[in-house]
Amino acid sequence: MKKYYCMVCALATLFIAFESKAHVPFLKPNLFNVTHHRLQIESSFTEFPFQPDFAMDSPHFSMVSPSGTETRITSQAKTKAAVYLEPQLTEDGTYRISTGIKTGPKYKATEVNSKLYFSEDMLRFPGKPTAMQYYSRADTYIFKGNNKYEIRPSNKGLEIIPLASPNELRLGGQLSFRVLQDGKSVPNARIILVAENEHFVRHRIGDLYDIDNNRESNLFADTKGKFTFHPKQAGLHFLFVTVHHKVDETLWESYNASLTLEVNLPIEQGK
Fold this sequence. Notes:
Radius of gyration: 20 Å
Structural class: mainly beta
Largest sheet: 10 strands, mixed
Distance between the termini: 77 Å
Order of helices and strands: HEEEEEEEEEEHEEEEEEEEE
Oligomer: single chain
Shape: globular
Number of strands: 19
């Protein structure tokens, strides 16, 4: 009886592991244009931006000021779903808020034709057994007083870097970015683009992490890691990129980076 119970538990655990979908990290400010002191930034993992699922805590929360000074940020509150930051802005200009590089769990995975699959995808692609070490990063940009912006990549890990002020993006406009890893361009990177609450508008097939996710809204970088975003609606948007590196036959590394942006309405003429 005991052996049967253990077998049932093992199968249940395996089923849950395969049924769970990959979560992606995000930072969500309640203000992008910070005009008062009630600023908070939510940090979480999710399947549907920007609905927090479980808290993304990090020992590397940081803020880069308009003058380029980097300071650590300490979380002010934590629930099961999210961590909350309350950075203090002392200068006018644009601030980069980041989780830094957070080391995640190591998953069982399969390798098929130089592609990596894990979780429920292992049922669809039962290839050569291997393992995947997961790394996450989330960024966002806010400003106080003015949105003057300077390009300042951290040159550490995977990151999506705006090439102009991310807080000047308006419906009908465009903004270019570069995908970097350790300061080097990532050629031909695939960028997942998600508008807030779009899953209430239509059903989506495949989770955001899915390596074979062929959304029509996907963006693709050129050979120098550059891509351009032309927003089709105002509001919050989530950009997400994944890069896999094979370390050896027994281990892959999965680097994941997200960027939260706000697309504003066009300025009305005469105002």
